[in-house]
C-alpha cells in the first residue's frame, strides 16, 4: 500500500547530537559552510570556494587544482510555547550538520567535484508530560546528500554545470495516539537533478544561478505502539509496516555580486523553494490501526522566498572579514498548523572571519537567528492543537567552522 509523505530531512546522521525545535523556515537548512553562514548564504554569484557545489556548481571552473573543504555547523535552538495558558520550553539540544567538498580542475575548460551535506532539517522535542503530546511528542528526521557535479567553461564569461544529487532520509515521529504512544520510523532514498550557471559581465559584476529539482523518495518503515494500558489493545494498535512516497521540494538559488574594489565584494541574492508540493502528511499502513488504514494531516504549504545580502572584505593577505543578513519567509498555512514545525518568518544576522596560511584556509562564523511569533488561533481543533497556543521567543545560535586545503 502507498502513502504520500513530504520529506522532512535533518542533519547528517553521522554526527547528529540531538534535536529540539529546529528554527528553519519550513524545514530547509542552509548551513553549507562557515563562509556561507557568515555571508548569509550570499555565495551564489561569488561561487569561488568548494561549497559552491551546493549553491552553484558552475563556480567549480574558478577553482584551481584540487581543493578540499570540510567542517560542521553547531545549531543551538531555543523556543517557548504556551498551551492553554501553560508555558512549555522546547528541549535544549545541539544539531551538528557536517559538510565535505572535493573539487578538481581537469583543464582550462572542465572541472568536477562532489559534496556531502544536508539541504533540509527539522526536529522538535518536548517534555514527556507536556499537554500537546496528542499532536507531537518528538520528531527526529535525518538525511544526507551526495552530489557529484561536472562544470564546463563555455566562454571566458559563461560557465555551466550539471550533476545528480543522491538523497537519503529517515523519519522518526513519536506522539500520543489515544490510550497509547505511537512511534513511526521510515527511510528511503531518491535522486534530484542539480544545475549551475555563472556569468561574469566584467571584472566588477557577476551573476550566479543554482537549481535542485524535486527528489522523489520511496520510503518504507514501521508503525509501533508502546505503553498499551491493556494487552487486548494489541490487536487494535498492532505493529505494522508503512510504505509511501516522499517528495523533496525544488529549490532555486541566485545571486548578483559587485566588486567595487579588488578586496571588497557585495552580493544580494534569493532562494525560491517550491513548498506547495507539501499538500498533506499522509501515512498508510499494511494493517488497520484503530480501525483505519491511513492517517492524514492537511498542510497546503505555499512557495516562499529567502532574501540575503553578504559583504566580504580582505583586510589583510591572511585575514578576511564577513557579515550577512537574511530574511526568510515561512511557508506554513495558518489554518493547518501543528507543533511539528512551530515556525514563522525568520531574520538572521551573521558575522565571520577567514584565515589563510600557505595552502590552508580556516573559516569561522556566528549567526543569530530570530523568529517571529506564531499564533494557532486559526487552526481547527481535533488534532491535538490548542487554538490558544502561541510560539514565542524563538531564537537560535549557529556556530560554523570549515577547514580547507588547496593541493
Structure in words:
This protein is mainly beta. The protein has one domain: Porin, CATH 2.40.160. 2% of the residues lie in helices and 58% in strands. It contains two helices and 22 strands. A 14-stranded antiparallel barrel has the order 2-4-5-7-8-9-10-13-14-17-18-19-20-22. The radius of gyration is 22 Å and the shape is elongated. It starts with a strand and ends with a strand. The N terminus is likely disordered.
How would the blueprint of this fold be written?
Elements: E1 4-6, H1 34-38, H2 52-55, E2 66-83, E3 86-89, E4 98-105, E5 110-117, E6 122-125, E7 138-153, E8 158-177, E9 180-200, E10 205-212, E11 215-226, E12 240-248, E13 251-261, E14 264-273, E15 280-289, E16 292-298, E17 304-316, E18 319-328, E19 346-357, E20 360-371, E21 374-375, E22 390-406
Parallel strand pairs: 1-12
Antiparallel strand pairs: 2-3, 2-4, 2-22, 4-5, 5-7, 6-7, 7-8, 8-9, 9-10, 9-11, 10-13, 11-12, 12-15, 13-14, 14-17, 15-16, 17-18, 18-19, 19-20, 20-22, 21-22
What string, H for helix and E for strand, traces the elements in order? Answer: EHHEEEEEEEEEEEEEEEEEEEEE
Q: What share of the residues lie within helices?
A: under 10%
Number of separate strands? 22
| Major beta sheet summary | 14 strands, antiparallel, barrel
End-to-end distance: 51 Å
Strand content: over 45%
Shape: elongated
Q: Which CATH architecture?
A: Beta Barrel
Radius of gyration: 22 Å
Structural class: mainly beta
Largest sheet: spatial strand order = 2-4-5-7-8-9-10-13-14-17-18-19-20-22
Number of domains: 1
In the CATH scheme, the class would be: Mainly Beta
What is the tally of helical segments? 2
What is the fold named in CATH at topology level? Porin
CATH superfamily: Outer membrane protein transport protein (OMPP1/FadL/TodX)
Which regions have little confidence, pLDDT < 50, spanning 5+ residues? 1-23
Amino acid at each position: 500500500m502507498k502513502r504520500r509523505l513530504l520529506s522532512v530531512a535533518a542533519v547528517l546522521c553521522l554526527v547528529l547530537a540531538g534535536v529540539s525545535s529546529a528554527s528553519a523556515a519550513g524545514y530547509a537548512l542552509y548551513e553549507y559552510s562557515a563562509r556561507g553562514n557568515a555571508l548569509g548564504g550570499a555565495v551564489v554569484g561569488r561561487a569561488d570556494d568548494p561549497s559552491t557545489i551546493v549553491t552553484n556548481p558552475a563556480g567549480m571552473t574558478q577553482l584551481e587544482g584540487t581543493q578540499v573543504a570540510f567542517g560542521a555547523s553547531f545549531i543551538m535552538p531555543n523556543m517557548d510555547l504556551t498551551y492553554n495558558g501553560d508555558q512549555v520550553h522546547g528541549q535544549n539540544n545541539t544539531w551538528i550538520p557536517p559538510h565535505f567538498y572535493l573539487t578538481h580542475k581537469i583543464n582550462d575548460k572542465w572541472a568536477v567535484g562532489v559534496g556531502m551535506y544536508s539541504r533540509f532539517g527539522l526536529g522538535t522535542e518536548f517534555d514527556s508530560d507536556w499537554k500537546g503530546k496528542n499532536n507531537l511528542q518528538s520528531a527526529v528526521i535525518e538525511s544526507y546528500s551526495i552530489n557529484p557535479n561536472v562544470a564546463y567553461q563555455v566562454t571566458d564569461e559563461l560557465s555551466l554545470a550539471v550533476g545528480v544529487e543522491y538523497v537519503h532520509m529517515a523519519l522518526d515521529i513519536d506522539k500520543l495516539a489515544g490510550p497509547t504512544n505511537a512511534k513511526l520510523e521510515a527511510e528511503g532514498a531518491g535522486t534530484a537533478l542539480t544545475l549551475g550557471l555563472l556569468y561574469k559581465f566584467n571584472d566588477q559584476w557577476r551573476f550566479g544561478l543554482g537549481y535542485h529539482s524535486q527528489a522523489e523518495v520511496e520510503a518504507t518503515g514501521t508503525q509501533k505502539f508502546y505503553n498499551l494500558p491493556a494487552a487486548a489493545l494489541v490487536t487494535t494498535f498492532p505493529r505494522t509496516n508503512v510504505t509511501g512516497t516522499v517528495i523533496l521540494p525544488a529549490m532555486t538559488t541566485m545571486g548578483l555580486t559587485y566588486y567595487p574594489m579588488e578586496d571588497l565584494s557585495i552580493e544580494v541574492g534569493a532562494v525560491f523553494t517550491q513548498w506547495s508540493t507539501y499538500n498533506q502528511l499522509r501515512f498508510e499502513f499494511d494493517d488497520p490501526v484503530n480501525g483505519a488504514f491511513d492517517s492524514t494531516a492537511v498542510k497546503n504549504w505555499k512557495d516562499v522566498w529567502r532574501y540575503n545580502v553578504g559583504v566580504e572584505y580582505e583586510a589583510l593577505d591572511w585575514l578576511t572579514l564577513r557579515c550577512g543578513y537574511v530574511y526568510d519567509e515561512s511557508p506554513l498555512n495558518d489554518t493547518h498548523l501543528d507543533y511539528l514545525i512551530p515556525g514563522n518568518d525568520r531574520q538572521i544576522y551573521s558575522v565571520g572571519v577567514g584565515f589563510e596560511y600557505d595552502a590552508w584556509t580556516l573559516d569561522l562564523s556566528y549567526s543569530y537567528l530570530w523568529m517571529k511569533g506564531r499564533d494557532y488561533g486559526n487552526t481547527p481543533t481535533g488534532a491535538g492543537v490548542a487554538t490558544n497556543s502561541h510560539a514565542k521567543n524563538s531564537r537560535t545560535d549557529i556556530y560554523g567552522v570549515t577547514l580547507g586545503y588547496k593541493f
